[in-house]
Design a protein that fits this description.
Blueprint: H1 3-32, H2 35-43, E1 68-74, E2 80-86, H3 89-94, H4 96-101, H5 114-120, E3 126-131, H6 143-151, E4 158-163, H7 177-195, E5 202-207, H8 209-222, E6 232-236, H9 242-248, E7 250-251, E8 255-256, H10 265-272, H11 281-295, E9 299-306, H12 315-328, H13 335-345, E10 347-348, E11 354-359, E12 363-370, H14 382-395
Parallel strand pairs: 3-4, 3-5, 5-6, 6-9, 9-12
Antiparallel strand pairs: 1-2, 2-4, 7-8, 10-11, 11-12
Length: 401
């Protein structure tokens, strides 16, 4: 083929390829307006990542025999949530002989188990309700090291309750914002009314998608009359809301979904109308803080993020922190005003990142940005252990003694 013929052929091929790419992208956008596809894209619940392991055999994930008790919690609308009650390792060591003797596997009556009794009968016991991110199950990826980090500060006192939302793992149903809120209510109700743990001894922990659920349930209970306040809420890699998240999200940090459309505000605003589950964390966290300030209720919020998180950019945490602080200031505070205050009050830890604490007469809002930790690896870091201990100590200064 002559050079004069090659260039038009290449241009024709490039035009055809571009047209196909645009067509596929337009098809994707059309599919994203449907409820079923949105659900799978937002929650990724079909991606289990534990297909070849039995979630009713926690020992296969590295736990000691009966250190974890698998059981189910029923939601108000009849779904069955698969849950793990994880004993702290030092408490397990003290009762190892009796725990090993118990039958292993899924438990039909969790209240009859020694592990349950150890939680229920210890007035010094603390419970972390763990809400994981999108995709996977209670046993996926870095979640197992995360459980160990959560209880590491007091390995004979801090229990972990983790569960799969509806549609995830062995839990029944299909996920939605309303459904996950029902799930969170059911789990909190189980902790407070079945086990009998007061909220002052419960900490809510959420990562990624779990931060939206954590903020939502903390917000809802704080607005009750009388309000229900937990010892603290720890958020790792939160996001502002779903609309903002999809405008910045890239699969594996590379492939954009809707971020190219953010350059076209009218088109992007139109597509936002089709978003079913909005998860307005920025509004909920501001209202949560504002309600506690008005009611004079103590609260403790910790926001943690890594700068090298390519799933959810760390500027989401900066925005969530600002909205939380804004809720504590009568008349509010602008983002730029808060950034100016950070110049004086923020602590620079060098390679360990930065810390900014906003204190009021009633609460503490802490932003901790690490230089590294990615999206999931950070969950096993000591920074998580420290955040848990700060919250429990703020609620009860005698706990760490």
């Amino acid at each position: 083929m002559a050079a004069s013929d090659l260039i038009p052929s290449l241009l024709k091929y490039a035009s055809l390829s571009a047209a196909i790419a645009v067509g596929l992208y337009a098809t994707l956008l059309g599919l994203l307006t449907t409820e079923a596809v949105q659900s799978h894209v937002v929650y990724l619940h079909a991606i289990q990542m534990t297909w070849f392991k039995d979630l009713n055999v926690p020992e296969s994930f590295g736990f000691l025999r009966n250190q974890v008790t698998p059981f189910t919690i029923q939601t108000p609308d009849g779904e069955q949530l698969h849950a793990w009650h994880i004993l702290p390792v030092e408490l397990y060591r003290k009762h190892e002989q009796f725990l090993v003797a118990d039958p292993a596997g899924l438990v039909s009556d969790v209240t009859a188990r020694l592990s349950f009794q150890l939680l229920r009968d210890d007035p010094e016991a603390r419970l972390i309700i763990h809400m994981h991110g999108a995709g996977g199950t209670v046993g996926s990826g870095y979640r197992v090291p995360n459980y160990r980090a959560l209880s590491a500060g007091q390995p004979d006192k801090i229990h972990v309750l983790t569960f799969d939302y509806r549609g995830f793992g062995l839990s029944t149903g299909q996920p939605s914002e309303a459904g996950l809120m029902d799930d969170a209510r059911a789990v909190v109700d189980w902790a407070m009314n079945v086990v009998g743990i007061p909220p002052s001894r419960i900490l809510i922990f959420g990562q990624s998608m779990g931060t939206a659920v954590s903020i939502a349930i903390s917000h809802e209970l704080a607005l009750q009359s009388p309000p229900v306040l937990f010892a603290g809420t720890v958020l790792v890699a939160p996001f502002v809301d779903i609309a903002t998240l999809v405008s910045t999200y890239r699969v594996a940090g590379v492939i954009p979904i809707l971020s190219p459309l953010a350059r076209f505000p009218l088109l992007f605003a139109y597509l936002q109308r089709f978003i079913r589950d909005k998860w307005l964390s920025k509004d909920r966290i501001a209202e949560y803080v504002r309600a506690n300030e008005v009611n004079g209720e103590p609260y403790h919020l910790t926001i943690i993020h890594a700068e090298d998180d390519y799933d959810i950019p760390w500027h989401h945490s900066q925005a969530v922190f600002w909205h939380a602080v804004r809720g504590s200031v009568p008349g509010g505070i602008s983002y730029d005003e808060l950034e100016l205050k950070k110049l004086d009050a923020q602590v620079d830890l060098g390679a360990a990142g930065t810390i900014m604490e906003w204190k009021t007469d009633h609460g503490i809002i802490r932003e901790q940005i690490l230089k590294s930790g990615l999206h999931d690896v950070i969950m096993g870091y000591p920074v998580v252990t420290m955040a848990v201990m700060r919250a429990f100590e703020a609620a009860d200064p005698g706990f760490t003694n």
